[in-house]
Inverse folding.
């Protein structure tokens, strides 16, 4: 009976074999490649140290893609958190007592299950300049109306904002469900005590609900930051990999993918992957610092 | 004139309530209408689509699907060319996602069982490793993954999309929570006294008990694999092996760009099964979500 615990190793063995080969090794391998000048078009591979990193850090397009990624993510996370929080408060409010709350929850959540590729094609078609539904709804149809049609995806700012909107549309329901679970976990007595003391709904929200939702905020913020920094599918498909007008929709991962697989520069592509990884790590830590300081003082 | 006066609070409550419902309904429409318009447009001719938005179906359903599968009709020769075999992609995705889900379900249960039922040295560190890797996005390793796949001779096969599912950290994490909260290692003692082998205990006693949780995670695992784009894009080369997202992406080319009815039909084929699955499994999906959320 003493040896029984050793069986634990056998149970977890298959997982860790596959994990080591298909998850850990590729990460290490990517890092090693990032220190070489490996290129699909060349046979000789040399160790070049941090040269790739130095070159990428001085390449304007790298920084442009990184900036684009942020310009797409920031409006997205602000809109997503606002809508999710507002809807979560509405659907959990006792006094409002919303009917069909489960149905609303399910409907808001559904978009996040849909294939990104399909969402990208839909968005591409809806925002099409000549035949898109968006222009038809705003300006109507016919020759006169067509004169006014806007070429949405040809304007750098609008194009990026369209991606932000799509991301928000995809994920606000998911965040809302996490917020709802967080709100429902707050003991009812807190709210009752506040109401007895005559606190307004807004004050209850600000001094009870919001601070107690900090863990949920941290979770959504970090997962969204990581996901947002790694956005690829939708802008890639919408621009067929080109990055769109003035490369405004070129995200960091698209830049990396182009470097590695379109131009064959595996070495520099790998260094971009690790730069993004490091930068995302730094911003995650900054985010955690800010939010934990706020929850201490507030 | 005598009127029943609403109490001030009652009146403003009504306003708040109405505004809330309007807002909730508006947001619901924003979620539903794009899919509805997609379905409607999949049934309309290009001329009809050009003519503006409609909420009523058109007459070109069959024609749109013909264009999608067989390609555009050349009016002079009467021949079609350049279609997309979406059904093949559908089948491919089903095989890939199905196999990955079965592997993920079984091996995650095995791993989670090992972590929660046995106390061996290094258990915490190994589990911590799993948690750490959940946070690392696949983009960090995609180039190394590609090189590994090429050197293993697995390039342009489905293996790289199926085998890694054996190590699904998130499923293990979820199942371990489930096992720890509902079963106790002491449960095994009775079976051990009867002389049962540890693996028989897992298969006869453990697996049936964890099955509900595996089912929930399998829905998410299947969808994750079904929707995956980056990895198939990196490791698949021949079109007859393409998974659905890779074929859907090809709708963004000039043929379908000019033939929106067929384009909408193609997107609809990819989304309708997810809608049906969501309606059928919504109880498990929504339940699984709040379980994960509360546990966090």
């Amino acid at each position: 009976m003493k040896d029984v615990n050793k069986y634990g190793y056998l149970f977890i063995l298959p997982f860790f074999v596959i994990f080591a080969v298909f998850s850990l090794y590729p990460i290490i391998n990517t890092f090693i490649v990032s220190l070489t000048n490996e290129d699909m078009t060349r046979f000789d591979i040399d160790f070049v140290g941090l040269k790739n990193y130095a070159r990428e850090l001085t390449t304007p397009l790298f920084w442009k893609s990184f900036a684009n990624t942020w310009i797409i993510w920031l409006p997205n996370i602000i809109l997503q958190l606002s809508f999710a929080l507002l809807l979560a408060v509405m659907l959990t409010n006792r006094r409002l007592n919303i009917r069909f709350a489960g149905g609303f929850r399910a409907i808001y959540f559904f978009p996040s299950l849909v294939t990104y590729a399909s969402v990208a094609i839909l968005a591409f078609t809806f925002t099409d300049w000549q035949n898109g539904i968006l222009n038809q709804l705003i300006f109507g149809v016919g020759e006169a109306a067509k004169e006014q049609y806007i070429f949405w995806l040809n304007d750098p700012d609008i194009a990026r904002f369209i991606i932000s909107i799509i991301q928000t549309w995809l994920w606000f329901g998911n965040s809302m469900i996490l917020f709802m679970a967080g709100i429902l976990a707050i003991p009812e007595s807190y709210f009752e005590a506040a109401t007895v003391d005559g606190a307004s709904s807004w004050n209850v929200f600000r001094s009870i609900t919001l601070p107690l939702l900090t863990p949920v905020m941290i979770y959504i913020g970090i997962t969204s930051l990581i996901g947002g920094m790694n956005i690829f599918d939708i802008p890639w498909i919408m621009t067929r990999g080109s990055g769109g007008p003035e490369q405004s929709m070129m995200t960091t991962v698209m830049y990396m993918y182009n470097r590695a697989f379109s131009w064959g520069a595996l070495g520099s592509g790998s260094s971009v992957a690790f730069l993004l990884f490091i930068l995302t790590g730094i911003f995650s830590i900054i985010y955690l610092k800010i939010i934990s300081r706020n929850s201490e003082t507030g | 004139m005598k009127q029943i006066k609403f109490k001030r609070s009652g009146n403003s409550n009504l306003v708040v309530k109405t505004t809330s419902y309007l807002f909730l309904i508006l947001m619901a429409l924003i979620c539903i209408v794009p899919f509805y318009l997609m379905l409607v447009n999949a049934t309309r001719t290009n001329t009809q689509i050009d003519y503006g938005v409609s909420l009523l179906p058109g007459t070109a359903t069959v024609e749109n699907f013909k264009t999608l599968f067989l390609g555009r009709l050349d009016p002079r020769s009467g021949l079609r060319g350049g279609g997309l075999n979406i059904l093949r992609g559908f089948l491919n995705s089903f095989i890939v996602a199905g196999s990955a889900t079965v592997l993920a379900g079984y091996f995650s249960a095995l791993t989670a069982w090992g972590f929660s039922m046995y106390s061996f040295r290094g258990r915490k560190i190994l589990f911590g490793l799993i948690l750490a890797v959940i946070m690392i996005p696949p983009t960090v390793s995609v180039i190394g993954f590609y090189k590994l796949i090429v050197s293993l001779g697995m390039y342009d096969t489905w293996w790289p999309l199926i085998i890694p599912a054996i190590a699904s950290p998130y499923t293990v994490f979820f199942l371990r929570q489930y096992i720890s909260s509902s079963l106790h290692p002491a449960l095994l003692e009775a079976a051990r006294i009867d002389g049962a082998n540890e693996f028989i205990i897992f298969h006869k006693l453990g697996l049936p008990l964890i099955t509900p949780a595996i089912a929930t995670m399998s829905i998410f695992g299947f969808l994750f694999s079904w929707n995956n784009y980056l990895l198939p894009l990196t490791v698949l080369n021949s079109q007859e092996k393409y998974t659905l997202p890779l074929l859907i992406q090809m709708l963004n080319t000039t043929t379908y760009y000019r033939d929106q009815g067929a384009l909408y039909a193609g997107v609809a084929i990819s989304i309708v099964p997810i809608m049906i699955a969501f309606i059928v499994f919504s109880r498990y999906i929504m339940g699984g979500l709040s379980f994960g959320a509360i546990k966090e």
In short: Chain A touches chain B through 97 residues (CB under 8 Å).
